[in-house]
Each structure stands twice: as structure tokens, then as C-alpha cells.
């Protein structure tokens, strides 16, 4: 296959699509992006496999399963930067049934309060009566994104810095355009359904933690903007966070930092006086639903949209990329 393909965006979605298209036999593939790693939104992410702030669930489950399997395969390459973590999802109210994402992972079980309190002896009785346990991969962005860039370039892919203002600018040079521009698609294609979900994290030195935690919001949404989670990576721990819908603010808020550390250390006492390595803030590309579909731009050019992944970029990227390959074949 020699059809010219241009991918817009060099975050986790754009790079995954580039690699998968090459693996499928497409040889003339380039990426154009305003920013490159380590300066993309994907670099701010924790990289944990966990479906978060994205819809629709029925499509996300399949994409998440495919991504889990691909991440497990890539684990065998040290340079890919993929590690495993013991993952605990804690609920402040009793929950019955399985987690909707449970069938996508290999190791999973529901948790009762007795097991939760045994694992976290400092929490109060009745604080978290139920939860879920799984073993999931983490793609550490500072290692994983450069790894994908190298894979893409080694297969003949070209990465360019550029600011594409409209798809028509490049449609005459490309048989297929893959739009992985995230929140920038709001202006690029005039998508009114896109909205920012502000995130802020604290990166601290890992004191020896090998488990990651997320605390589910109450049904009334009390913690919807102040998400509490820890992501234990090989050398550091990500402490989060916030999920502020429709906020375009990317500066670091000091009061938010204090709140993050207080909430996380209430569950993980070893994080009470952490060695802070970095503060990060970014805007997740929220949308009513992930947009993954083809659109005929002209007689000679098809655009395939792939954006609006919310907080699930590292959870659905490979599954979405496989679907992009199918759509690209159909358009060739």
C-alpha cells in the first residue's frame, strides 16, 4: 500500500495510529503536529490503563480490551516503558455486580470491606465498603511516547512540526487524513461537542509503592472535580487530581496541590511528606462521545476522525488505531 496518509497530532493517539497503519502495510505515512513529546497533552497523563471520563461505554470496552492486550505484548520490550501495577478502585458506597470494564483485563476481583481495610489499615470503618481489584499496565509517557516515535521513524515514517489551520490545506497532498488533534479539533473542524476537562497532578518520588488507587465519586458527584488517585510508576508516583469540566486554565494552582497531597496521603500515609519532582496541568479532550468515523472530504481525500478520548487516551489508543486501519483500508 502506497497511498499517502497524513496524521494530525503526535500524542498517544496519533503515534498509535501511525504505528498500526505501518504494521498494516501502509508505507507513505507522515505525522504533522504543533507540538511533539515531551510537550503534548499525552505527556501530562499518568499512562494508567483505566477507562475514565469517556463515552460510549459499549465501544470503549472493545477498544480497552484490545489496548490491554497490546500493552501486555509490548511489556516484553523494556524500552517501551510499560510496567504493571496492583490497582484498587475504592467506592464510598456499597456496589453490587462487576465493574463494567472487568472483562477487558486478565486479573480482576470485587473487594469487600474486610479485604480493603486489611490492605489499607489507616482508613476508617465504613469509609470504603466495596471496591474492585485488578492488575493493569501503565505506559509511562516519558518512555513510551519516544519509543513509539522511534518505531514510527524506523519504519520510514516522517514527523513534522506544523500548524494546520484547516483540513483543506493538506487534502490535495493526502489520500487519507487521520485527525488525532484532541481538543484542537474544536477549532480545526468546528466540533461544538468538544470541551476541556482540566487536570492537575503532582509527580513525586516513589517511596516504594507498588499499588495504584482511584476513589470513585459519590453518586451525588461530591468528588467529581476533585478526583483522588495515585499511579505508582517505576520511579515516581502520580498524585491526582482534578477533573474540571469546561476549564481552560493550565497554570498550577497551589491550593489544589495541597488538597491532592492531603487526599492521597490519607490513603497512602507514605505520601504525606513526598519528595515533589514536578507539577503538571493539562486539558483532557472531553466530548459527549469519542468521535471515530470517516468523512469524505473531497473526491480524492477521506478524513478519519479519532478524538475526544477524555481521560482514556492510554486505555483505548490501540483499539482505536486498529479501527482506523480498517477505515483506511476501506478508503484506499
Short description:
The protein has 332 residues and is an alpha/beta fold. Helices cover 28% and strands 30% of the residues.
Could you describe the 3D structure shown?
The protein is of the alpha/beta class and 332 residues long. The chain has one domain (5-331): NAD(P)-binding Rossmann-like Domain (Rossmann fold, 3-Layer(aba) Sandwich). Helices cover 28% and strands 30% of the residues. It has helices at residues 12-23, 57-74, 113-119, 141-154, 168-171, 185-188, 254-267, 313-331; strands at 5-8, 29-33, 82-91, 108-112, 130-139, 158-161, 176-179, 194-205, 211-215, 228-232, 236-240, 244-245, 276-287, 291-298, 301-307. The strands form two sheets. Strands 3, 4, 5, 8, 9, 10, 11, 12 and 13 form a nine-stranded mixed beta sheet that branches. Strands 6-2-1-7-15-14 form a six-stranded mixed beta sheet.
Amino acid at each position: 500500500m502506497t497511498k499517502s496518509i497524513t496524521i494530525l497530532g503526535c500524542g498517544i493517539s496519533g503515534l498509535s495510529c501511525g504505528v498500526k497503519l505501518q504494521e498494516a502495510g501502509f508505507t507513505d505515512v507522515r505525522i504533522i503536529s504543533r507540538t511533539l513529546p515531551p510537550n503534548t497533552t499525552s505527556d501530562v497523563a499518568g499512562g494508567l490503563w483505566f477507562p475514565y471520563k469517556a463515552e460510549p461505554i459499549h465501544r470503549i470496552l472493545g477498544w480497552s480490551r484490545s489496548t490491554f492486550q497490546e500493552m501486555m505484548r509490548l511489556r516484553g520490550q523494556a524500552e517501551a516503558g510499560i510496567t504493571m501495577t496492583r490497582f484498587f478502585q475504592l467506592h464510598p458506597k456499597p456496589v453490587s455486580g462487576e465493574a463494567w470494564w472487568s472483562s477487558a483485563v486478565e486479573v480482576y476481583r470485587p473487594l469487600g470491606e474486610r479485604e480493603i481495610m486489611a490492605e489499607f489499615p489507616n482508613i476508617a470503618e465504613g469509609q470504603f465498603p466495596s471496591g474492585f481489584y485488578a492488575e493493569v499496565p501503565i505506559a509511562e509517557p516519558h518512555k513510551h511516547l519516544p519509543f513509539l516515535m522511534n518505531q514510527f521513524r524506523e519504519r520510514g515514517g516522517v514527523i513534522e512540526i506544523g500548524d494546520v489551520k484547516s483540513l483543506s490545506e493538506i487534502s490535495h497532498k493526502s489520500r487519507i487524513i487521520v485527525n488525532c488533534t484532541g481538543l484542537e479539533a474544536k477549532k480545526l473542524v468546528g466540533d461544538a461537542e468538544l470541551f476541556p476537562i482540566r487536570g492537575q497532578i503532582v509527580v513525586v518520588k516513589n517511596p516504594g509503592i507498588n499499588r495504584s488507587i482511584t476513589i470513585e465519586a459519590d453518586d451525588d458527584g461530591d468528588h467529581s472535580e476533585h478526583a483522588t488517585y495515585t499511579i505508582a510508576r517505576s520511579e515516581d508516583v502520580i498524585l491526582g487530581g482534578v477533573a474540571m469540566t469546561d476549564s481552560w486554565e493550565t497554570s498550577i494552582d497551589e491550593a489544589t496541590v495541597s488538597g491532592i497531597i492531603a487526599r492521597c496521603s490519607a490513603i497512602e500515609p507514605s505520601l504525606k511528606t513526598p519528595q515533589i519532582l514536578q507539577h503538571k496541568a493539562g486539558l483532557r479532550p472531553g466530548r459527549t462521545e469519542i468521535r471515530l468515523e470517516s468523512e469524505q472530504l473531497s473526491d480524492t481525500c477521506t478524513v478519519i476522525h479519532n478524538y475526544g478520548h477524555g481521560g482514556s487516551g492510554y486505555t483505548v489508543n490501540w483499539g482505536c488505531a486498529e479501527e482506523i486501519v480498517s477505515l483506511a483500508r476501506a478508503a484506499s
